[in-house]
Write a structure and sequence with these properties.
The protein has helices spanning 25-34, 69-86, 108-132; strands at residues 5-6, 11-12, 37-39, 43-49, 56-60, 93-99. By secondary structure, the protein is of the alpha+beta class.
């Protein structure tokens, strides 16, 4: 894994450029058809390796989960931020994060902990698969 470093500050860049977003329907479908996922209380993460060399993120927050657009947008904003911070620790995967339960600002710490735990669980699963094959 390569980390792009800002030569002035000598720290990794934590932006969220368009190349790390899953937008097309075909990309979402290919991840779902791969049929690999891990789940927690708030989130389900569907994943598949990609050949781009960088992890990508797709988000799904349905109207059944949160009726108001402002609530759905808040949930997506929080998930994008969590992905942005952890992006350099993730293998080149396509991740589709699906929200299973509504959460608000009071649930942020538990959501952040769950997201980190799901990423650790995912890394452990992928290492196990690599060692078997």
């Amino acid at each position: 894994m390569t980390i792009s470093v800002n030569p002035v500050l000598a720290t990794p860049k934590f932006g969220f450029p368009s190349r790390v977003r899953i937008i097309k329907t075909d990309d979402f479908s290919s991840v779902f058809n791969f049929r690999k996922r891990i789940s927690g209380h708030y989130l389900a993460i569907h994943y598949q390796y990609n050949s781009l060399g960088t992890p990508r993120l797709g988000l799904i927050v349905g109207k059944k989960i949160a009726k108001r657009a402002v609530d759905r947008n808040y949930m997506k904003r929080v998930l994008r931020e969590l992905f942005r911070v952890h992006r350099h620790d993730i293998d080149p995967l396509d991740l589709v994060v699906r929200v299973q339960r509504v959460y608000g600002s009071s649930d942020y710490s538990s959501l952040a902990g769950e997201f980190g735990e799901l990423l650790r669980k995912l890394t452990k699963q992928l290492e196990k698969r690599k060692s078997v094959s």
